[in-house]
Recover the amino acids of this structure.
């Protein structure tokens, strides 16, 4: 359900009131389904305290594992049933307070009757068997195709711990965990603490014993077991280890991991003023992972694909590695040490980690331009998301664990982080830091709410932040700001910042920004004056600029303090369009590039004209972070060209010019590995002409070379993917040959992508059948890979052949598929074709399919907007 901002706030307040009053009433029976409602969770936590778990697992490497969980807890009353979460297990025995009872079990949770419970301390013992998960949740199992070794690890967020053991699977029932794990003798086991004992159990197994943890929410607990490769480093304050599968160990750069980890732990210890609490810091690269990384206490997991390299790491890859390490490390304090009470607080965990991770990257590593990268990557995604009709407040109600991830998106991560960044500017850096420190000290090993966090900041600032909280956290939408000024006699005689909302999201906000004016001098854009301003309302006078020189360009969010989309005045827009190369400051240059791209998306700057700016300015770009950003925009521009289906003299020439620019710059960048690989990757990504594809094939077989560039395995797969995408002669055979060359799990995935992308109706039909078969034996990670490659923008006609089918299947798949499955499907396979007819088709589907889950319905509505945006860009072309 889409909520207006005031209604969202009212609902949040009403929900909180209802939950407080619910604690006083007898709990209603829990719904018989796989999810836990907030009401049921809070009713349960009102009755329970002092939770401890003894978890004993036996993991053999086969498809099932066994376990015994001993739960001890204090119960406030024994007047009504109590549920314990355990998913799809075969229960062998259930003992409650020393008495064996027959399990009352529905495959999702066990119900304990009052007659078996006592007021005060209770002990429940559950012995069970369960299949390993293969979808990345619970206790996941993967067989390495290279050497057939088996690897397992856990992922419990938001509520998947009950896919491994019996527990109260909700964040506000923190507990301690005592763990023993029996595994094959050549395996290692990793958990939140470092093992205290490893002993032989028979000839072929060992039992690993771990110390009792400090109090943690279940989703922060980790167990990983398998024949992992281990690297260790004890040079810092805390011992560090890194783990990976043995078959990919050569692709890991442990020295880089330990360098950034050591720097981050030192930075956060000092910044927070609270020492790291989990004694050792382990990081594991794991296969088939659903997300980028996960902040399990003392044992952080990372998706392999983003952090394995078959060549020397580029600067961008190192920057990404450092940033993700810092993000997950920030969670060790904000998320693990102090944890939200319910999933409506998840945004604050992620926003704070995104903010602090970027701050740590900028201040504790060599990547001093981390905030520029944040602007180009995270913040722009947040602006785009927050401009949609389907946007949502940062803080939203979460009625059950089923909807915990419905709103995990760029609003959660990057708008939230941007909001915290501008709050830091508003309050002052020292005040903000003091408030954070006080919060962590007061609530350590406890659960806290947004009000607790904002209250700590407000106390430090001696300011009531309730109005700020309402504006920024409970009301959706991004404001636009523009400079409105006039000049007389070469001087500014009036200047205001004009702030606007939209008809749907009209809220105006308070914010501190810098307003800067620039003059052109000798072909360079030179800063004339910079004025900090707190604006609030529709118009705010900027008296500090009155009397200064009439500018050639004004930027009302200089150095990116605030969260607002900047609309350039006409004079500034023309200056940016014509003089980008004369802007010395790379962050300002990035912002001006973004303003031009916003013009394309809004239909105000024809794509033709944008590409002219690209060809004029991009070849000479010397800032690597900015070049990474703009080449990404160029790739998206090529995608729009393909989606629009425009085939005329301009489009044909633009494709040739784009290939020529990327190739020439790759050749010219010899000796600068970062730039050469970036330009060549752009060449591979945008090449579609027969001449360009022939050149790619020649590079692949070695008959053509880019002097200085090594064509590693990843680049080989990129080229093979491109050749198959455009049906280059012999491309299908290249996939088969490369699979023999690369038998790794990554190679299997790349082969699936290169096959699914082929513009062949039979191939499309076969793969569409596979990815829509909810019983397929193909691991979900491979299903998701195929989904993402099935219909690329230029394959409009092929996409249309199954468009009606894919739309028609959406309600059934939404109902029967898992949350992670339908998220992948709706992000990849809802069809749009950049025509008025396809927009109408999607609008009709949205009007009819009103019973979809919230996340899937949002994806459908977003697809309508995406199709409309493409049509807007198409209609704005000046050379059709």
């Amino acid at each position: 359900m889409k909520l207006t901002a005031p209604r969202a706030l009212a609902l949040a307040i009403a929900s909180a009131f209802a939950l407080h009053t619910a604690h006083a009433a007898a709990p209603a029976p829990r719904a018989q389904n796989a999810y836990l409602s907030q009401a049921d969770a809070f009713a349960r936590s009102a009755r329970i305290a002092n939770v401890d778990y003894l978890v004993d697992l036996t993991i053999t490497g086969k498809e099932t594992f066994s376990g015994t969980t001993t739960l001890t807890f204090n119960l406030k009353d024994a007047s009504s049933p109590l549920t314990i979460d355990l998913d799809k297990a075969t229960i062998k025995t259930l003992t409650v307070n020393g008495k064996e009872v027959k399990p009352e079990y529905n495959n999702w949770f066990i119900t304990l009757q009052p007659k078996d419970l006592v007021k005060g301390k209770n002990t429940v013992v559950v012995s069970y068997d369960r299949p390993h998960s293969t979808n990345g949740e619970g206790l996941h199992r993967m067989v390495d195709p290279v050497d057939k070794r088996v690897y397992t690890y856990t992922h419990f967020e938001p509520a998947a711990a009950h896919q491994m053991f019996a527990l109260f699977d909700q964040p506000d029932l923190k507990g301690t965990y005592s763990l023993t794990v029996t595994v094959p003798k050549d395996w290692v086991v990793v958990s939140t603490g470092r093992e205290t004992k490893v002993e032989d159990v028979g000839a072929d197994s060992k039992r690993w014993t771990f110390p009792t943890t400090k109090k943690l929410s279940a989703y922060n607990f980790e167990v990983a077991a398998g024949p992992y490769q281990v690297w260790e480093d004890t040079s810092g304050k805390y011992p560090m280890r890194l783990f990976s599968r043995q078959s990919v160990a050569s692709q890991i750069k442990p020295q880089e991991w330990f360098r950034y980890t050591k720097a981050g732990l030192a930075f956060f210890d000092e910044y927070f003023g609270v020492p790291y609490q989990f004694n050792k810091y382990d990081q594991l690269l794991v296969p088939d992972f659903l997300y980028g990384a996960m902040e399990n206490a003392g044992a952080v997991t990372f998706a392999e694909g983003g952090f394995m390299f078959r060549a020397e790491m580029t600067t961008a890859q190192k920057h990404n590695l450092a940033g993700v390490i810092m993000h997950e490390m920030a969670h060790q304090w904000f998320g693990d040490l102090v944890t939200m009470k319910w999933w409506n607080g998840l945004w604050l965990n992620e926003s704070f980690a995104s903010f602090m991770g970027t701050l740590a990257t900028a201040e504790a590593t060599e990547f001093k331009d981390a905030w520029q990268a944040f602007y180009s990557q995270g913040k722009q995604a947040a602006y785009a998301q927050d401009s949609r009709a389907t946007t949502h407040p940062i803080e939203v109600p979460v009625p059950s664990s089923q909807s915990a991830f419905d709103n995990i998106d760029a609003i959660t991560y990057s708008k939230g982080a941007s909001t915290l960044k501008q709050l830091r500017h508003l309050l002052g850096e020292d005040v903000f830091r003091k408030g954070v420190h006080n919060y962590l000290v007061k609530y350590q090993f406890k659960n806290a709410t947004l009000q607790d966090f904002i209250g700590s900041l407000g106390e430090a600032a001696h300011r009531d932040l309730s109005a700020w909280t309402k504006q920024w956290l409970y009301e959706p939408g991004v404001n636009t700001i523009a400079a409105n000024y006039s000049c007389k006699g070469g001087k500014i005689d009036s200047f205001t910042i004009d702030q606007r909302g939209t008809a749907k999201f009209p809220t105006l906000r308070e914010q501190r920004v810098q307003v800067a004016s620039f003059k052109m001098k000798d072909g360079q854009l030179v800063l004339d004056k910079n004025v900090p301003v707190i604006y609030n309302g529709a118009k705010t006078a900027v008296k500090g600029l009155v009397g200064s020189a009439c500018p050639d360009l004004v930027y009302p969010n200089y150095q990116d303090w605030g969260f607002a989309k900047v609309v350039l005045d006409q004079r500034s827009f023309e200056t940016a369009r014509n003089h980008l190369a004369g802007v010395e400051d790379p962050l300002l240059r990035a912002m001006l590039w973004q303003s031009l791209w916003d013009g394309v998306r809004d239909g105000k700057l024809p794509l033709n004209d944008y590409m002219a700016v690209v060809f004029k300015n991009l070849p000479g770009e010397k800032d690597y972070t900015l070049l990474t950003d703009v080449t990404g925009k160029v790739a998206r521009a090529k995608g729009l060209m393909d989606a629009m289906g425009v085939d005329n003299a301009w489009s044909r020439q633009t494709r040739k010019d784009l290939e020529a620019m990327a190739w020439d710059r790759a050749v010219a960048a010899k000796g600068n590995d970062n730039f050469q690989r970036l330009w060549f990757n752009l060449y591979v990504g945008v090449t579609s002409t027969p001449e360009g594809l022939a050149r790619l094939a020649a590079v692949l077989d070695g008959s053509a070379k880019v002097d200085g560039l090594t064509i590693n395995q990843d680049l080989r797969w990129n080229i093979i993917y491109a050749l198959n995408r455009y049906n280059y002669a012999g491309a299908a055979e290249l996939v088969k040959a490369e699979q023999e060359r690369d038998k790794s799990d990554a190679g299997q995935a790349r082969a699936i992508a290169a096959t699914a992308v082929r513009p062949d109706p039979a191939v499309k039909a076969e793969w569409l059948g596979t990815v829509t078969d909810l019983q397929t034996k193909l691991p979900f990670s491979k299903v998701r890979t195929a989904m993402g490659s099935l219909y690329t923008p230029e394959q409009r006609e092929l996409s249309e052949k199954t468009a009606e089918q894919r739309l028609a299947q959406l309600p059934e798949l939404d109902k029967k598929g898992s949350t992670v499955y339908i998220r992948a499907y709706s992000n990849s396979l809802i069809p749009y074709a950049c025509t008025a007819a396809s927009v109408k088709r999607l609008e009709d589907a949205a009007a009819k399919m009103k019973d979809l889950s919230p996340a899937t319905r949002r994806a459908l509505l977003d697809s309508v907007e995406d199709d409309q945006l493409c049509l807007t860009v198409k209609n704005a072309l000046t050379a059709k």
Summary: Confidence is low (pLDDT under 50) at residues 1-24.
